[in-house]
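Following up on my earlier message about alpha-D-galactopyranose. Here are the inputs again, as you asked, copied directly from the submission form:
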Amino acid sequence: MSETINHINKGETGASSHTTIVATLKETFAELYGTIPLIVQSPGRVNIIGEHTDYNEGFVLPAAIDKAAYVAVSLRDDTAIHLTALDLHENFTTSIEDLRPIGDISWPNYMLGAAAQFAKKNIALKGFNAVLMSNIPIGAGLSSSAAVECAMVFALNELLQAGVEKMEMVKMAQKAEHEYATVMCGIMDQFASMMGKENHVIKLDCRSLTYEYVPFNMEGIKILLLNTNVKHSLASSEYNTRRNECAQAVKWVKEHVADVHSLRHVTEAMLDAYVLPKDALIDKRARFVVQEINRLEQACANLRQGDIQALGVNMFATHDGLSQMYGVSCKELDWLVDAVRNDEQVLGSRMMGGGFGGCTINLVKEDYIDELVVRIAPAYQAAMGLPLTHYVATIQKGTAIIE
Ligand code: GLA
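Thanks, got it. Here's what our run produced:
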């Protein structure tokens, strides 16, 4: 395996539009390999509510958005794997005989991890060329890595004619993250990226993996993402710690209630009786999850009734729980939520995703977005010493072949 990452002089490709990305991928592929690739697009995601519930067998309410990772892929006649990340001007070469995670948690791992899942399923893998581009901001909590994993699994499934079903591909993409990026993530990100549907959020039961598309049509209201620009560097170690804390709570409850297998089955009364007396911190972590699973049910009812006001109140409650009970927020995320908490034009706001940085998700009256950003961006910069970036997200379809 070549551990050297060479720099490719392709000029600045930056965060481009869909059309530019597709054209650039085609052009680059022709230059590098002289062939026409399969191009697959897989989106980033937002999550309306239901945070840190997926690995506790609860519910989540995510949606795919209009920012995506794109891979252009073709099979080779030999066993080599040639990868290029065009935005980063980097490439990486290995072979199917030498598939293993590479040292740093970086982009080749997402692609190699995806390829490795086929070998693990005894599906004959072939050498391949792949060029990656993305306009999902990295480290913003919008699941840029899940998008790459899904795009890669989807593309290889197509090219190898492996016939793997979509839900199985979701699980393969999740395993790529576990095994090659060593984050023991739940299933939400890969699921949302693969299964997204235009103008719908998805209520996913992470225990049974059954799901339902819920229309997300809010007249005059948009999803505004405010990026703290804090890279969530603590996220992977703390994430795995939270998983273990939840597992410990389940273990203590299970000593008394045998049929409990996850926090999905746990009530606050059980926590009072079996967890709180043992460890106040573990109790706080588990109690957040139990409350969040219930809060998601309320939020879905709010959405169906068109009661965005009530949905917003639930989002603020989720933020407070993530910050004060689950311990996965940071001062920048708290600042952004507090900055809009009493603003009547902002219906709901909370940190989103794993935590420790990334974006807040806000439901904001459309006409007010520019004014809001102009008001809080300088104040955020002054208070936190970081720039504030923002994106208005629309809800789009999941992983798909472009051509
Ligand atoms: C990350 C993980 C998801 C989920 C969220 C928190 O995005 O990848 O599986 O656990 O954090 O809800």
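One observation from looking it over: The chain has eleven helices and 13 strands. Hope that helps, and feel free to reply on this thread.
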